[in-house]
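Sanity check record (used in CI):
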Amino acid sequence: MRILAAMSGGVDSAVAAARAAQDGHDVTGVHLALARNPQTYRSGARGCCTLEDARDARRAADVIGIPFYVWDMAEEFHASVVDDFVAEYAAGRTPNPCLRCNEKIKFAAVLDRAVALGFDAVVTGHHARLGADGLLRRSVDAAKDQSYVLAVLTREQLDRSMFPLGDSTKAQVRAEAAARGLAVAEKPDSHDICFIADGDTRGFLAARLGEAPGDIVDAHTGDTLGTHRGAYAYTVGQRKGLDLRTPAEDGRPRYVLSITPKTNTVTVGSREDLAVHRVTGERAVWHGERTPVECEVQLRAHGEVVPAVVTVDGAGLTAELRVPARGVAAGQAVVAYRSDAAGDVVLGSATITTDRADD
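Expected output for tRNA-specific 2-thiouridylase MnmA:
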């Protein structure tokens, strides 16, 4: 098959491309230039999409022996991921930009372009598995599993995707890269949000949304306990950085329960107040059997799974949780899994819309 290998400049995508070429596919490497200003280099393990990454990807392609190109997708990335990220925070939600990048860029814009150019599929270095049955499953390396951020992919997109690393641990991938002579074998993984290289999300949002002072109020009494300079700096479940003037009567910590952009209010309460028994979602993508179905759901990247009964109705999804979850934030994804002999299968996903009124 003719395969387009998305090469970020990291070790995972390099090994994925090498495996595809070794399997006899006609592979072409492509690096996505996503930054409008790629002149800065990564700081430690932060950031990506720099000139350094593009050069690392090109060197890896040379070692593998495949053609290599750079596609400028900065404008698409900015509109679909960065602008969406800012707008979601302004609306009181907590987005997952990696999920949106997979949905809108890597497996929509890139895949569409690849198919138009005559490629049969796109291969990436994501840690997830696609079985012979075409079902998306968790990686064997639970610590690196990325099935959560891939759960937005449609059946048609999965049919044209390849994830060769799902059966390997990260240690095995690095060892293979070294054995293949790839210079990225020990390159640090990128962390945090790729377009916020210094890790200061609050500062990034403040520069774009400006300061918007408002009140932090108690969920039970309605009393104003403090002020904030922008509700976008908070997320549901947050405990640190509240800087409240009035401590709780029992001395226990308070947590962010909800963010209301209309009144520019951050509402706080006890840890018990965070408990959610029902999660609703929109823009559902469903691959599983007819619902309602008993399964498990994951409500944050790297979050714990919770047993639930999931019902899908058109583009809407409802998960009745068997065990209450805490820190459920609108804008994140609810991803449903079912366990079988071959591992955890992704049944589908939706973008969480739950607020406190849904409980």
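Confidence is low (pLDDT under 50) at residues 40-47. If this sentence no longer matches the regenerated tokens, the check is flagged for review.
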